[in-house]
Design a protein that fits this description.
This protein is mostly helical. The chain contains 12 helices and no strands. It is rod-shaped, with a radius of gyration of 29 Å.
């Protein structure tokens, strides 16, 4: 019975990507259906190194592999598929860990908003000692949790500041505090929305990385499949085509 890996079965519906993409690999990868993208089960850096090492290891075996129906064009395209995945991983890494201008401004305004919220609640709590109406207002605002609740709290506080500005100034609240709550209220919702859109865009970059991974994985597994056919009798040599990561990974990991 011919050897068949679980990966062979998983990639069976992706054999169309064994056709070399030539110089237009980015377009081929981008046009891959979203549902075809496979989520990596190995660190990308490790996978890239293993793919590159396998490509060089196979140099002396090329004629045997080609004789086993490995497409020479696919083999010689491996470095370009590797390079494309490396670029996609770098773009996703930057999107994942980098700080966009929108994210930076959102964090700044959020931090200012939280500081302003705390200060205003302190002042309204002071006013509540002489006016029970403020006591209920402060209690309702203090119960909120989460980004959206914080934003609605700022909006509520801004309205209260406009309504009770004179009383706040009477207890010597800094006018800048009233300006800060107005500024945060005006900008925080828009920044939050833009941030959410940025998150969606970043997720697309991750998906593109996964597509590039899938595109390389198809080629890597095809080389391994042919190597298994050619070197089935030579287990030691065959190890040069297998994943050292999965060979060393604990079974219960």
């Amino acid at each position: 019975m011919p050897w068949k890996s679980k990966m062979d079965e998983k990639l069976a519906h992706l054999i169309k990507y064994l056709t070399p993409g030539g110089t237009d690999i980015p377009t081929t990868v981008q046009n891959m259906a979203d549902e075809e993208a496979i989520k990596p089960n190995i660190p990308i850096g490790v996978f890239l190194q293993e793919a590159y090492s396998m490509f060089w290891f196979a140099q002396d075996d090329r004629e045997k592999l080609f004789g086993a129906k490995l497409d020479p064009a696919l083999y010689y395209e491996l470095p370009r598929r590797i390079q494309h995945l490396r670029r996609c991983e770098a773009v996703w890494w930057k999107a994942r860990y980098g700080l966009t201008p929108i994210e930076a401004e959102y964090r700044r305004v959020k931090e200012l908003g939280l500081k302003t919220r705390t200060e205003l609640l302190r002042h309204f709590s002071h006013l509540a000692r002489h006016d029970m109406d403020f006591d209920k207002i402060v209690e309702n605002i203090e119960q909120g949790e989460g980004d959206l609740e914080d934003m609605f709290d700022l909006r509520s506080l801004n309205k209260l500041c406009n309504q009770y500005k004179d009383k706040l100034l009477e207890i010597r609240v800094e006018p800048q505090l009233l300006e800060d709550v107005a500024f945060c209220t005006e900008n925080i919702f828009n920044l939050y929305t833009q941030r959410e859109l940025d998150d969606i865009y970043e997720q697309r970059k991750q998906l593109t990385r996964n597509k590039a991974y899938t595109y390389l994985l198809v080629a890597v597994e095809e080389v391994r499949r042919c190597a298994y056919h050619v070197f089935w009798y030579d287990k030691e040599h065959l190890r040069g085509y297998l994943s050292e990561y999965f060979r060393r990974k604990p079974k219960d990991a």
